[in-house]
Design a protein that fits this description.
This protein is an alpha/beta fold and 345 residues long. It has a domain of 177 residues: Hypothetical protein af1432, CATH 1.10.3210. Helices cover 55% and strands 10% of the residues. It contains 16 helices and seven strands. Strands 1-7-6-5 form a four-stranded mixed β-sheet. It has a three-stranded mixed β-sheet with strand order 2-3-4, with no helix packed on it. Helix 1 packs parallel to helix 3 and helix 2 crosses helix 8. The longest helix is centred in the last third of the chain and has 25 residues.
């Protein structure tokens, strides 16, 4: 085992153990799934970056680690693979089907190496889901079929194995079809709850707190500005990131810790597809981005103008507004109880 793979194994195992992350059905430590995926990848390649990415493929998606953390610890090539393997859809992108389509398109654009790791992940997940949850397995196998259509560039051996497991799983489910229960429509069930359909009640959750409420104005520098000058300005304004303009348009950002000799262009980092949101994006989606990155950037009319860091969520003003929203929710719940269950009031 190379040093890179060993470090990735240790890092991923610790990251998932710190949050006591376990497999949904078996409750086994989550690193056993990562180990299974890494072993499948190791069967078809000795590429240490791919095997390391197999260990790390769920780290950004499920733990507090960010892509920046992965890049700093394992280098850009591994971080790029992990980014390709990390879902980009957000909770507000629609129902599960719509979100999975967004993630499928993301996988379609992935490199051949990332697609190979994704195939290994599908194989192990398929075995686990079909064994423990036949009802949900039908949904998963439909999603898996759509994913396989865009993963053909991955390793041919793993692709063939994934197809065979998919086919066998479908046959197995057909034999147990009489035992399966009809899947309930969650939305229909939720609509029966008193007050759930109230526009004011929905707005309380979806509109009152958005990215523009907590975003800080983003400093901006031209690409040819000296990095030392930029650092002084960033220190003065107590900001640790700033955008970089190329030919008058914001094309990326720099971090204070990257500042050194040369121009801003020498330290530019490009925004990832899931790192930029518009001002109307909900707090839930902002937090979703911040589980994957240290910074969430906010755009206005297609231009990145603001930034939200992980620490910004804990600022006094933000906490005051959050407290206000929570208070309104509590008041709404009290009102609903009084209207629909007067005997409990």
């Amino acid at each position: 085992m190379s040093d890179l793979i060993e470090r990735a194994q240790d890092y991923a195992t610790r990251a998932h153990q710190r949050i006591d992350h376990r497999r949904k059905y078996s409750k086994q430590p989550y690193h056993l799934h990562l180990q299974a995926v890494a072993k499948l990848v190791a069967i078809v390649t000795d590429d240490p970056e791919m095997i390391a990415a197999a260990w790390l493929h769920d780290t950004v998606e499920d733990t507090p680690a960010t892509l920046e953390d992965i890049g700093a610890e394992f280098g850009a090539p591994v971080a790029e693979l992990v980014e390709e393997l990390t879902d980009v859809s957000r909770p507000s992108d629609g129902n599960r089907e719509q979100r999975k389509e967004i993630d499928r398109k993301h996988s379609a654009q992935a490199s051949q190496r990332a697609k190979t790791v994704k195939l290994a992940d599908l194989i192990d997940n398929c075995k686990d889901i079909v064994k423990h949850d036949p009802r949900f397995a039908r949904i998963y196998l439909t999603e898996m079929s759509a994913l396989l259509d865009v993963l053909k560039e991955g390793d041919s051996r793993l692709f063939d194995s994934a197809r065979k497991i998919h086919a066998r799983s479908l046959d197995k489910l057909e034999k147990k079809a009489s035992e399966l229960c009809t899947r309930k429509n969650v939305d229909a069930f939720a609509s029966t709850i008193p007050g759930f359909a109230s526009p004011a009640f929905r707005r309380m959750f979806t509109e009152l707190f958005t990215a523009r409420d907590i975003a800080e104005r983003l400093l901006s520098f031209d690409a040819d500005n000296p990095r030392k000058d930029a650092c002084k300005i960033m220190e003065k304004h107590k900001q640790n990131v700033a955008s970089v303009r190329i030919s008058g348009r914001v094309q990326g950002y720099i971090r204070e810790i990257d500042i050194g000799e040369g121009d801003c262009a020498d330290a530019i980092r490009h925004f990832t597809v899931d790192q930029v949101v518009d001002g109307a994006t909900t707090l839930a989606d902002v937090i979703h981005v911040l589980t994957r990155h240290n910074h969430c950037f906010v755009s206005l009319l297609g231009e990145v103008v603001g930034v939200i860091g992980r620490d910004d969520i804990n600022k006094p003003m933000v906490r005051m507004r959050l407290f206000g929203v929570i208070t309104m929710i509590e008041m709404g719940l009290v009102q609903l109880i009084e209207e629909h269950f007067p005997q409990a009031a």
